[in-house]
């Protein structure tokens, strides 16, 4: 499985985690707040910040009834029409350039999720380094072809998707010109529960589609993301806000700055801890070998006396014979006088 390049960064399971802070609508219609979110994300150590590029009119139509109205009692957005929700959540297109410019100032990547072809054309004019495809759009094959034709890396969320649907999307993207592809395991509930996250899909998806796989994580906290790294996630995407208390369409399941910093730190630690298959002492452990148990003389013994379980014991440190030889030692005679505290060796028998 090949690694891929996004901007100057190499993305793959054998490289440090690629952490994306998703701003979404957490700017609360303030460009000043949006730029502050970029500043906070960069300070937390992420590699990238992502926007969403759409308008209410490119997403849906303005109706307040039927399937266009959110009446699910478990939804964070109950009581809104789809149109009004997207009006609240969208990022004005004229903000994209200053936001991406601020990302560049901090040395992090700025990119977005386009939701229709006009958004792709707009983002191309801003020379974004890659594209994210949302779970709900991954079956929009004309959009997939449009994005793939740019030749830029694609990061595709797979929430709700069957294996057949993912396969169709991946084939479509590759046939249309995408060479660098990342799939994200995703659960399209907001927030998602850990029990509904099914992280064991990550290595299976990686092997099945022969590309890097990551996690678009909507659970609360950072535990699922850390577990994702342990299972081979190359990318972690989490929604990000300055403060959940400030509200916003996605604030309830977004990380705050200290939490994002902890996510970055712990993902890095989890990645470093994976290492490789290894047995025996590492170079760092060699000095600790002396603290194993071994056989020691614990009472003075004269030449010719027998070794017994009273005058020989398995204790620390580890400079004597291993404890497995105790039965061979008991009943043998001492070759010479042996002082208490002497490590047992074949030479004293």
TrEMBL record:
A GO MF label: N-acylneuraminate-9-phosphate synthase activity
Protein name: Aldolase-type tim barrel
Domain AFP-like: 294-349
PROSITE patterns according to UniProt: AFP_LIKE (PS50844)
SUPFAM superfamilies in UniProt: AFP III-like domain, Aldolase
InterPro entries tied to this protein: AFP_Neu5c_C_sf, Aldolase_TIM, PseI-like, PseI/NeuA/B-like_N, Pseudaminic_synth_PseI, SAF, SAF_AFP_Neu5Ac, SAF_PseI/NeuA/NeuB
GO biological process, alphabetically ordered: carbohydrate biosynthetic process
A Pfam family hit: NeuB
Domain of life: Bacteria
